[in-house]
Amino acid sequence: MFKVGDATITRVEETNVPSYKLRNVFTEMTDAQFDQHKHWLAPHHYEAESGRIRLAVHSWLLKVGGKTILIDSCCGNNKNKPGRPFWHMLNERYLERLAAAGARPEEINLVMCTHLHHDHVGWNTRQKDGKWVPTFPNARYVFNKPDIDYFSKIDADPKEGPAELGTFRECVVPILEYGKADVIEGAYRINDFIEIDTAPGHSPGHVFFKLESKGQRGVFIGDVWHHLLQVYYPDWNFPKNSDAAQARVSRRKVLDYCAASGALVMPGHVGLPFAGRIEKTAGGYRPDFKA
Ligand SMILES: [Zn+2]
User: Fold this and answer.
1) Using one digit for the tens of pLDDT, what is the confidence trace for 18-55?
2) Which of 97, 121, 69, 136 is nearest to 12 (CA)?
């Protein structure tokens, strides 16, 4: 568990396994750059035998100001994930882990998705009597309008759809239809403790969540960076972006915010210890994520 002022934050893991080949993800990486960083990569951020990066998939359970908030909802069970054998047809005891972390589904007040990719919306809904219904019946779900617009268009295109491996229509559209979504656009303040700021590029509506309590700060950055190597090399994009140039600009914006605020940074996929801080250096940035 992590603390930021009076807020408590618990990581709820879905998976944490080797996934994509490092060399396929960061094609610009030189041998010299790899040699420079390999001392800290394995085992928590890279599996040397397979050459694959380790990517955690988790939610952050945030309790602050009397509210119980779930940030990002992972892949979900029994989902077809072509090209992603490590997340395909999962059968994880995620809801039991969430309960162990201190929240049953009906106790969640807010679900906040940093963006609407398939690995961030999976538990938004569950199947009941052949229908997709909200998993968290008493929650409002906060979605970003540019992502709703972007994935709606892809989903409606018979050549491109269904969007996000079908998760848009299974895990996002039902929430809209049940009237459970708060669709916001641009910077937005949720309450005294949480502010939403924009970081587009990985998807058009990608946002990050700034937390403040008792003068301490935390920040949930989603996929602004997937891997700590991107802190050292902010121009390295993870594949699959709606706008690659914009993703680089957003990464620097968020890195600057993290470094200037001293916030505890909680990314969407970084491995053990899962959270840390960012330092500004003469030439750029350095992660201070100590296992
Ligand atoms: Zn992701």
Assistant:
1) 999 999 999 999 999 999 999 999 999 999 999 999 99
2) 97
Ligand 1 centroid to Cα of residue 32, in Å, is 28
Spatial distance between the Cα atoms of 240 and 230, rounded to a whole number of angstroms: 15
- Tell me whether strands 207-213 and 194-198 are parallel, antiparallel or unpaired: antiparallel
Residue 118 CA, ligand 1 centroid: distance in Å? 8
Q: Has this prediction a pTM greater than 0.85?
A: yes
Q: Among 35, 282, 48, 242, which residue's Cα sits nearest to residue 150?
A: 242
Q: Which two tokens stand for residue 148?
A: 């709703």
- How many CB atoms are closer than 10 A to CB 291? 11
Nearest to 148 by CA among 126, 119, 122, 175: 175
Residues with CB under 5 A from ligand 1 (ion): 119, 223
Q: Are 61 and 10 in contact (CB under 8 A)?
A: yes
Task: Name the β-bridge partners of 125.
Answer: 134
Whether 20 contacts 55, CB under 8 Å: yes
Q: What separation in Å is there between the alpha carbon of 5 and the centre of ligand 1?
A: 27
Q: How far is the CA of 180 from the centre of ligand 1 (A)?
A: 23
Closest among 254, 151, 238, 247 to 196, alpha carbons compared: 254
Q: Report how far ligand 1's centroid is from the alpha carbon of 251 (Å).
A: 15
Distance (angstroms) between ligand 1 centre and the Cα of 202 equals 9
